[in-house]
């Protein structure tokens, strides 16, 4: 169990459950209604007990769970999800307030960026916001360095959108940078990135053997196939465990206030000097952030991205916060009332 991250603190918190003949286990793969778990007695296939409670977490890869062992008459069952120390969470594509846990109890989030493709700054910022909000340590892993024509300037370009995050440059093809990568990816490591970024190739290098399926990238648009079909936890030979994930086509934000503050740390720092405490960095006088843009210390693209992700985050939060939802709708209603008043005016002409 220690190979999968079980420690003394977990043991102490789980002690009361042992009296009920439950044993701890870690979810290495989760499916609907079923989990592959590793326990003190070895791997097991367990059924997930449904309580019907909406607020009860569904087991996710990386979760620590309480398992009732199998008997001659019954299958092993997962009866409880233990408290998560960290969790990588994104918003679902639906218009509901639901969120999706991509990985639980991770120590390091590796944001994987391919150097063989044009950089998408907004995508990197989104993934970093999720990583910082998770409570784990973000590391930006630049892959396919052997296919980058100007490594120095590209590295500097990524560094500008990843303040505070450690960065490593790697090539699975040549082996360059893999020792440095192994040194900074510790504990439970989750790989996040789009299809074709090189997550599975990097994962195989970290695992020491080809356990993860890899696929070719289309030359027309640089996109790859989803060769990883599910999230799975695998022990690494140097210690720790690796959690590979399918390529992320969409990265919806879900309550990432702190994650955005960390991702846009320079804007957060500049905002301390704004004249107004609630400055939105739009048109307000005495805005230190806008001054930084005018003076060339902050790019307009960076500020626009910050505003865009803030709006998205506020919209996601409004799905569960009635008061916030009303505040967001108020400007629209004011505009509607204004238009109606104009139309009722005797001077209005079509």
Supply database-style keywords:
single chain; 350 residues; alpha/beta; OB fold (Dihydrolipoamide Acetyltransferase, E2P); Rossmann fold; Ribonucleotide Reductase Protein R1, domain 1; 3 domains; 6-stranded mixed β-sheet; 5-stranded mixed β-barrel; 10 helices; 33% helix; globular; metal-binding; zinc; Ribosome_biogen_GTPase_RsgA; P-loop_NTPase
Strand-helix topology:
Layout: H1 8-18, E1 23-31, E2 34-39, E3 42-48, E4 64-68, E5 76-81, E6 87-91, E7 99-104, E8 108-114, H2 121-134, E9 137-143, H3 151-160, E10 166-169, H4 178-184, E11 188-192, H5 199-207, E12 232-235, E13 241-244, H6 257-263, H7 265-271, H8 288-294, H9 300-318, H10 322-344
Parallel strand pairs: 3-5, 8-9, 8-11, 9-10, 11-13
Antiparallel strand pairs: 1-2, 1-4, 2-3, 4-5, 6-7, 12-13
Give an overview in words:
There is one protein chain. The chain is of the alpha/beta class and 350 residues long. The protein folds into three domains: 2-81, OB fold (Dihydrolipoamide Acetyltransferase, E2P) (Beta Barrel), CATH 2.40.50; 87-244, Rossmann fold; 264-344, Probable gtpase engc, domain 3 (Ribonucleotide Reductase Protein R1, domain 1), CATH 1.10.40.50. 33% of the residues lie in helices and 21% in strands. The chain has ten helices and 13 strands. It has helices at 8-18, 121-134, 151-160, 178-184, 199-207, 257-263, 265-271, 288-294, 300-318, 322-344; strands at residues 23-31, 34-39, 42-48, 64-68, 76-81, 87-91, 99-104, 108-114, 137-143, 166-169, 188-192, 232-235, 241-244. It has a six-stranded mixed β-sheet. A five-stranded mixed β-barrel has the order 1-2-3-5-4. Helix 2 (121-134) crosses helix 6 (257-263) and helix 9 packs across helix 10 (322-344). The chain is globular, with a radius of gyration of 24 Å. This is Small ribosomal subunit biogenesis GTPase RsgA.
């Amino acid at each position: 169990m220690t190979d999968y991250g079980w420690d003394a603190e977990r043991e102490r918190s789980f002690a009361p459950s042992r009296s009920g003949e439950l044993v701890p286990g870690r979810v290495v793969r989760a499916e609907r209604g079923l989990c592959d778990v590793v326990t003190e007695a070895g791997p097991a296939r367990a059924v997930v007990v449904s309580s019907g409670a909406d607020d009860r977490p569904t087991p996710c890869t990386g979760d620590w769970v309480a398992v009732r062992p199998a008997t001659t008459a019954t299958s092993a069952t997962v009866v409880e999800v233990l408290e998560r120390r960290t969790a990588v969470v994104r918003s679902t594509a639906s218009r509901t307030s639901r969120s999706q846990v991509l990985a639980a109890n991770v120590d390091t989030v590796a944001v994987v960026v391919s150097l063989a493709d044009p950089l998408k700054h907004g995508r990197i910022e989104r993934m970093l916001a999720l990583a910082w909000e998770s409570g784990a340590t973000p590391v930006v892993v630049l892959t396919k360095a052997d296919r980058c024509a100007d490594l120095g300037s590209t590295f500097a370009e990524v560094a500008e959108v990843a303040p505070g995050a450690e960065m490593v440059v790697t090539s699975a093809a040549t082996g360059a940078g893999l020792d440095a990568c192994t040194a900074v990816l510790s504990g439970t490591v989750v790989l996040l990135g789009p299809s074709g970024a090189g997550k599975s190739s990097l994962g195989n290098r970290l695992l020491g053997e080809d356990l993860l399926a890899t696929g070719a990238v289309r030359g027309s648009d640089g996109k790859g196939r989803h060769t990883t079909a599910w999230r799975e936890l695998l022990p690494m030979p140097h210690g720790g465990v690796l959690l590979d994930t399918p390529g992320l086509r969409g990265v919806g934000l879900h309550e990432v206030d702190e994650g955005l503050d960390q991702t846009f740390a320079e804007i957060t720092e500049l905002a301390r000097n704004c004249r107004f405490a609630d400055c939105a960095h739009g048109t307000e006088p005495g805005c230190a952030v806008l001054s930084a843009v005018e003076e060339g210390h902050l790019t307009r693209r960076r500020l626009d991205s910050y505003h865009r992700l803030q709006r998205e985050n506020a919209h996601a939060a409004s799905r569960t916060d009635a008061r916030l939802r009303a505040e967001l709708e108020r400007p629209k209603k004011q505009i509607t009332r204004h238009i109606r008043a104009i139309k009722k005016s005797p001077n209005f002409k079509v």
